[in-house]
Every structure is written in structure tokens, then in C-alpha cells.
């Protein structure tokens, strides 16, 4: 399950360096270029909870196979897209496949590893793979472009997809099992529409600054999500079990996850701006300078279960918050006074905190529910 | 670099600095909240034991 996790996160960032070449080849408008970059993330973000639940109810093995096939078709189609419109469509298809694979992959781990310690380690490695994929995406994209056509950045997904389709029925035969109960279609529609609108508003804020359209869509999305939450409190088999948030550890862990994503995005954006626009470094050099942080993030994700076992979940949570804060403060100091060495040190310190957070949040969420609902827990995380 | 582009860059840079400052402050706040609110492993085990007895 690590191969798909790596590809899904890598595809979120692989286009950063490829866009200039792709723009020359397909000549998209400015709006289409943004959709080529963002449509994938929109689809993944909006459909995670839906597919996490579908996997729990109808069997993860089936959904993993289906998701891999959809992801593979989307990747092959994207590689040979003749126009920007086709590429956007295939990126959406890739996003649907990614949203299908991710939570079910995390859910399968809780079935394959019944021992708590082994399961925590497996989840740590899964989180590490996901984080590493996003960090190395631009570098892989840049390297592929120097040897092959732009389509190669999508075609590299196909062999991994073939491996998943061939081996998933063998490896997951004993593990995957179907849960019970019907899925509430209204909840699916509300969660997908609400998340899509909120993700669009956040992306619009990040790329265009505050706009009336972005603000309106964001408010509408928040209202739809409120309706979704109200419905979850009333129906017998909710997509998101709100009673989980009564556990303080679970509530703080999910808040930590949200904050970590915000801090990670903000620091990556600021770091990229500083290196490229202020220092004038090429994009590939900027991507390479992010690698030490990515290595620390990956290693920390893997070691977090041992750390948590030794110092406890509470101390690990506090350590992750304070190292993230220290790394961000160092980054701010770097921007005003120091150079590249300090920048790398800042990303390394912050990445230590990000790594603890990713592994701990995923483990806390999956451990909070029984294995037959681990996919939906993974989707929340 | 044109003035317009320079201004846009400055605004984007200031915006991302503000986002990082907010994130850093929230990290400290949530760290303190986690320390005060989340029970330690020993306290959690004790609560679980007393629930089992009940």
C-alpha cells in the first residue's frame, strides 16, 4: 500500500516544476493552468470521507482495486492529453482514484497488523511515505523532465498501479472484509459539496488573495458542512462519528492535524517565495533545498511510535507543537536576517514537529475506532 | 521587475509571513492546551481501570 500512498501525494506536487513545459505544450489559459494544478487536490480532498466510509462498508480490497484502476486510467489519460480540458478531466479522475486508495490503504493496515505496536509502526511508515511523496514530487518532476516528455510525470504511476491490481487480491485476501449498513447518500453529497467549496475557497485565497467569489464559496461551503455535521449527529450510521470528539486525545490530535497542514503549507509557501523570489534561486535548487527537511520528516514519522511509547502521547503532542513553533520562528528569523543554512535548519526543526504530528494523528485516529471502521477514521485524519 | 509585480510579490510575501506567524502562535497555544487537557498515560490507565471496575 506504500506505492499508491507515495504516488498519490507525489501527484499533488509533481507539477510545480513541470508547469512551464506543460504550458508550452498545451497552451492553457491562466485559469486552466490553475485548474490543471488544483483539480487533483480538490477531488482528493472532497471525496476522502466518502470513499473511506464506502471502503469500510463494502470491502476495502474491492475499493482499492477499483481506485487503482481509476487512478491508472487517469494517469495514462493525463500523459497523452491533447488539450488542457482533457488534462483537467483526467486529473479529476486521478483525484477520484487517489481518494479511493488513501483511506482504504490506511484502513487495511489496521486489519493486517493486529498487534498495537506493529500497527503504530506501520501507520508511521505509511504517514512517512505520504509526506515524503509530497516533498520529492517537484524533484522527481524536474528529473523526469530533463530526460523525457512532460507526460512521463503521469506515466510513472502506471507500473505501480499494475502491481497493485495484480498483488492486492493475493495480499489482501485475508484482510479486507466488508462491514454492514447502508451509506447515507445525503451525507455523501453534503460532505463532498461542502469540502469542495471550502478547499476551493482556501486555494483561491492562497493564489488570488481575498475575492468576493472565493469568500462567497467559502461561506457556502462552511454552511453546507454545518448541515453535514447536524445530520451526522442525528442518523444512526454517520459518515463521521461525532462522539469520537468526546475523547480529548482524539479531539486535540485532529486539531493538531489541521494546524500542522496549515503550518506546513504556510511555511512551504513562504520558503518557496523566499528562495525563488527573494534570493532568485532556480526552482529545482529550491526543491533540492527542501530535501533535508523532507528526510527528517520521513524519519520522524517512522520513529514516532517508539517516541510515543517512551514519553507518552501527551508529551509527544506537546513536543510536536513546540518544535513546529520553534521551526516556524526560525524560518521567520531566516527571512529577515540569515541565509540558506538557516533556512535549511528551520525546515529541519519544523519538519521534526510535522513528522511527529502526521504519524501521531493518523495512529490516534485509526486506534480510536474498531478495525472495521478504520478507513473512515483514516479519512478524518 | 515592474512596480505592479513588485507590489504583488511584496503582498504575497507579507501574507505568507503573517500566515507563518499565526501558525507559530497557534502551535504554542495548542501545545499548552494539549498539556493541560490530554490526560497522561498513567491517568488514562487509572480511569480505564476504574471504568472496568464499575
Written account of the structure:
The complex is a heterodimer of chains A (381) and B (54). Chain A is an all-alpha fold and 381 residues long. In chain A, 83% of the residues lie in helices and 0% in strands. Chain A has helices spanning 2-13, 19-26, 30-58, 60-79, 84-112, 116-147, 152-155, 157-171, 185-208, 212-234, 248-278, 283-289, 291-311, 313-336, 340-368, 374-380. Chain A is globular, with a radius of gyration of 20 Å. Chain B has helices at 3-37, 41-53. Chain B contains two helices and no strands.
Largest sheet of chain A: none
Largest interface: A-B, 32 and 28 residues
What is the mean pLDDT of chain A?
Answer: 82
Q: Alpha-carbon distance between the termini of chain B? A: 72 Å
Structural class of chain A: mainly alpha
Q: How many strands, what sense, and barrel or not for the largest sheet of chain B?
A: none
Strand content of chain A: under 5%
* Helix run count of chain A: 16
What share of the residues of chain A lie within helices? over 70%
Estimated share of beta-strand residues of chain B: under 5%
The parts of chain B where pLDDT drops under 50 for at least 5 residues are none
Alpha plus pi helix count of chain B: 2
**What is the end-to-end distance of chain A?**
17 Å
Amino acid at each position: 500500500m506504500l506505492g499508491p500512498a507515495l504516488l498519490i501525494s507525489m501527484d499533488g506536487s509533481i507539477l510545480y516544476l513541470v508547469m512551464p513545459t506543460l504550458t508550452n505544450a498545451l497552451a492553457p489559459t491562466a485559469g486552466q493552468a490553475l485548474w490543471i494544478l488544483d483539480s487533483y487536490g480538490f477531488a482528493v480532498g472532497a471525496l476522502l470521507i466518502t470513499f473511506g466510509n464506502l471502503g469500510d462498508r463494502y470491502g476495502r480490497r474491492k475499493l482499492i482495486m477499483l481506485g487503482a484502476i481509476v487512478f491508472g486510467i487517469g494517469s495514462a489519460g493525463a500523459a497523452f492529453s491533447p488539450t488542457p480540458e482533457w488534462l483537467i478531466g483526467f486529473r479529476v479522475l486521478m483525484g477520484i482514484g487517489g481518494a479511493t486508495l488513501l483511506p482504504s490503504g490506511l484502513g487495511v493496515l489496521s486489519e493486517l497488523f493486529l498487534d498495537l505496536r506493529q500497527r503504530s509502526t506501520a501507520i508511521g511508515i505509511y504517514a512517512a511515505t505520504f509526506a515524503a511523496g509530497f516533498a520529492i514530487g517537484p524533484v522527481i518532476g524536474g528529473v523526469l523532465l530533463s530526460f523525457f516528455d512532460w507526460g512521463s510525470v503521469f506515466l510513472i504511476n502506471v507500473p505501480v498501479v499494475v502491481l497493485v491490481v495484480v498483488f492486492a487480491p493475493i495480499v489482501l485476501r485475508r484482510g479486507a472484509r466488508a462491514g454492514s449498513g447502508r451509506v447515507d447518500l445525503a451525507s455523501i453529497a453534503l460532505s463532498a459539496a461542502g469540502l469542495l467549496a471550502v478547499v476551493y475557497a482556501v486555494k483561491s485565497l492562497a493564489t488570488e488573495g481575498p475575492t468576493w467569489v472565493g469568500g462567497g464559496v467559502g461561506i457556502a461551503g462552511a454552511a453546507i458542512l454545518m448541515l453535514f455535521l447536524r445530520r451526522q449527529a442525528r442518523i444512526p450510521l454517520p459518515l463521521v462519528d461525532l462522539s469520537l470528539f468526546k475523547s480529548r486525545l482524539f479531539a486535540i490530535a485532529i486539531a493538531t492535524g489541521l494546524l500542522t497542514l496549515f503550518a506546513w503549507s504556510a511555511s512551504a509557501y513562504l520558503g518557496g517565495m523566499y528562495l525563488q523570489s527573494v534570493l532568485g534561486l532556480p526552482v529545482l535548487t529550491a526543491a533540492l533545498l527542501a530535501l533535508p527537511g523532507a528526510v527528517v520528516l520521513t524519519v520522524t514519522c517512522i520513529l514516532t511510535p517508539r517516541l510515543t511509547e517512551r514519553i507518552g502521547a501527551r508529551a509527544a503532542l506537546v513536543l510536536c507543537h513546540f518544535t513546529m513553533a520553534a521551526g516556524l520562528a526560525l524560518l521567520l528569523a531566516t527571512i529577515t536576517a540569515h541565509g540558506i543554512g538557516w533556512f535549511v535548519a528551520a525546515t529541519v526543526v519544523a519538519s521534526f514537529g510535522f513528522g511527529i504530528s502526521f504519524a501521531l494523528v493518523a495512529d490516534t485516529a485509526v486506534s480510536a475506532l474498531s478495525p472495521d471502521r478504520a478507513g473512515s477514521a483514516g479519512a478524518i485524519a | 521587475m515592474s512596480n505592479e509585480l513588485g507590489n504583488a510579490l511584496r503582498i504575497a510575501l507579507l501574507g505568507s509571513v503573517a500566515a507563518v506567524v499565526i501558525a507559530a502562535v497557534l502551535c504554542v497555544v495548542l501545545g499548552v492546551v494539549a498539556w493541560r487537557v490530554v490526560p497522561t498515560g498513567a491517568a488514562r490507565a487509572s480511569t480505564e481501570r476504574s471504568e472496568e471496575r464499575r
